Amino acid sequence: xxxxxTAFQNGKAFIPFLTCGDPDLETTENCIRAxxxxxxxxxxxxxxxxxxxxxxxxxxxxxxRALTGGVTTDKVFDFVRKLRRDVTxxxxxxxxxxxxxxxxxxxxxxxxxxxxxxxxILPDLPxxxxxxxxxxCRRHGVALISMxxxxxxxxxxxxxxxxxxxxxxxxxxxxxxVRSEIKTDLASIVKVIREKTDLPVAVGFGISTPDxxxxxxxxxDGAIVGSAIVxxxxxxxxxxxxxVGAYVKEMKAAVREA
Amino acid sequence: xxxxxxxHGGQYxxxxxxxxxxxxxxxxxxxxxxxxxxxELTALLNDYAGRPSRLYFAEKMxxxxxxxxxxxxxxxLNHTGAHKINNxxxxxxLAKKMGKTRLIAETGAxxxxxxxxxxxxxxxxxxxxFMGEEDTKRQALNVYRMRLLGAQVVPxxxxxxxxxxxxxxxxxxxxxxxxxxxxxxxxxxxxxPFPTIVRDFQAVISKEIKEQxxxxxxxxxxxxxxxxxxxxxxxxxxYHFINDPTVRLIGCEAAGRGVDTFETAATIATGKLGIFHGxxxxxxxxxxxxxxxxxSISAGLDYPGVGPEHAWLxxxxxxxxxxxxxxxxxxxxxxxxxxxxxxxxxESAHAVAHAMKLAPTMGRDKLLVITVSGRGDKDxxxxxxxxxxxxxx
Lengths: 258, 393
What we know:
Oligomer: heterodimer
Mean pLDDT of chain B: 96
Strand content of chain A: 5-15%
Helix content of chain A: 40-55%
CATH class of the largest domain in chain B: Alpha Beta
Distance between the termini of chain B: 48 Å
Strand content of chain B: 15-25%
CATH architecture of chain A: Alpha-Beta Barrel
Low-confidence stretches of chain A: none
Structural class of chain A: alpha/beta
CATH class of chain A: Alpha Beta
Largest sheet of chain A: 9 strands, parallel
Shape of chain A: globular
Mean pLDDT of chain A: 97
Number of helices of chain A: 11
Radius of gyration of chain A: 17 Å
Helix content of chain B: 40-55%
C-alpha cells in the first residue's frame, strides 16, 4: 500500500510545501523536521526548475534562490536519502516535466521508488500526456498525482477514475500564490470526484490562513499550503524552521477542526 | 496522438488550461474549412495587410554573389512590417468567432506584439502584451507603437527578462483569466493546437512563393532560406514545399557569439530533447533540464527552444538548420541595405547571411528564395550601437 493513504488517517490532512535548497538544503532539512514535529501529514518537496510556469512570484523566487545556491536533482536525491534514515512521513516531489524527462523517466522515478518518495506531482503533465511517466511510476510504486482544476468540468470524472495517491484539487484559476478569497464551487467538483474514486482529495493554491485551510479541508480531505510557507523562508532564511513549525502547528489545528 | 510531429509536440500544460486549448482546437477545426471564415480572412490579408507580398528578384545581390539567382519574399512589406500579421489576423478572427474579447500575447522583438495590438485595435478588443524587460529596452520603439495602438505592455522581469520569460508570463496570465481571453501565441510553438494553427496561417507565404515563382521562372526553387527562432516564418516558407524533395529547406538559427560559446540561441545545433512551454522539442538546457539563458543580438530569435514541427523536419532530414552568428547577421543587415536598398529585420538578416555563403556555391541556373520576414527600422539603433555609434531612439 502506498504510504500516501496514511497521511489521511489522522483526520483532515495538512500538506505543507517547500522548495528543496531554499535557501540551502540544511534549512530545508530543519524545516521538514519542524513540520513533521508540528503535525504535517504529508510533505510536498519542490525540486527547483528554472522556468516554473505554474508558479506565482513567491515560488518562482524560491526556485531561483535554490538554483542560485547550487541545488541539482542529484543533490536533492542525496538529501532525501539521508533524510529517509529517520524521517518516515510521506513525501512527494513536485517539479516540472523537463526535470524528470531530462534525468530519464526510468532513472528519476526508479530513484524515487528506491528512496521511499511516495508520489510525484508534475503540474505541466496533464491527463493526455501522463502515459510516458505513469507506467514507470506504477512499476516503482510511486503515485503520479493528478490535478483537477475549476476549469476541468467534463474532464473531472475521467481524471478521477485513473488517479493515484490523492487528488490535488486546484482551488481557483491562476498560478500558485496567496489569495484573499476563494470563490470556486469546490463542493460540486468534489462530489463528482467522490463518485469515481475513493482516493482522498486535498485542495491547494491560494490558501494561507487557518480559516481558509479549515474551510477547504471541510470541503475535502485536506489542505495544501505552499506560497505562505515559502514566504516565511524568504523572510527568515536560515531562521525559518521554528517559525514554519509554529505556522504548521496552527494550520494543522485548523484543519483538524474542519 | 493529437498534435504530434514525430515524437515532438503534445500538450504539456497545467490542467487549468486544458479545456481552453481543447476548445480552441475544436473552434479551429470548425472554422478552418469554413468558406465564410476563409473569405473574411482573405479579405483582411489582402485589403488590410497588403497581401500577396512581393517576390522580388534581387538582381544586384545575385550579380554580386555570382551564383544562384536570388529572390526575396518581401514579408517586410506587410502592414506592421513583418510576417507576424498573417497569424495574428487569423487568430484574432478565430478568437472573435469564439466570443473572446481580450487578446494576450508574448513578444520578443516586438513585431508579434505590434501585430497583436494592431489586430486588437481593428477588432475592438482589449490587448495585453508581455515583453521581457531586456527586450523593452532593445526595442523601445515597438513598445511605444503597441501603446499607441491601445495595448498595455507588461515588462517581464523574471528569469532572463527576454522572450522565454514573456511566454511563461503570458501562459501564467492565461491561467488567471480564460473565459474572455485568447492567448494569441506568436510562433509555431507551445501546446497543440498552436503549432498547427500558426503554421496554417503562415503557410500563405510558401503558397505565394510557389505561385509567384511558377509565374516568373516556370519552376520550383532549389532552396528556401528563412530565419528560425520559434520558427513561424520558416515553417510558413517551407510548408507547401515539404513534399517537393528537390527543394532544399534551410532554417537559419541565431548562434549569437557562436555555437561553441554559452552566448548562443542555436537550439538545433546545441540543444537536446526536452519538455517546456507546452511542447516536447529541442531546448537549450543543462544536464539537469534547467532551461539555459540563451543569447542573440536578435530579440526575436533569442529563444531556447524551437517549434516541434521543425524538430521533426530536422529528425527526418527534410530540412537543414544552420547557425548564423551576430557578426554574420549584422554584416548581412548592412549588405542588403547597401546592395538592394532593403533594410531587413536583424532576425531576417540571419537568413540573408547564410544565403551570402550558399548562393556563390550554387550554379547560375539555380533559384534561391530568402524570406525577408520583417523590416529593419526597429533595429537601426541597436545595430548602430553594435558598431560603436552612440545612437539612441
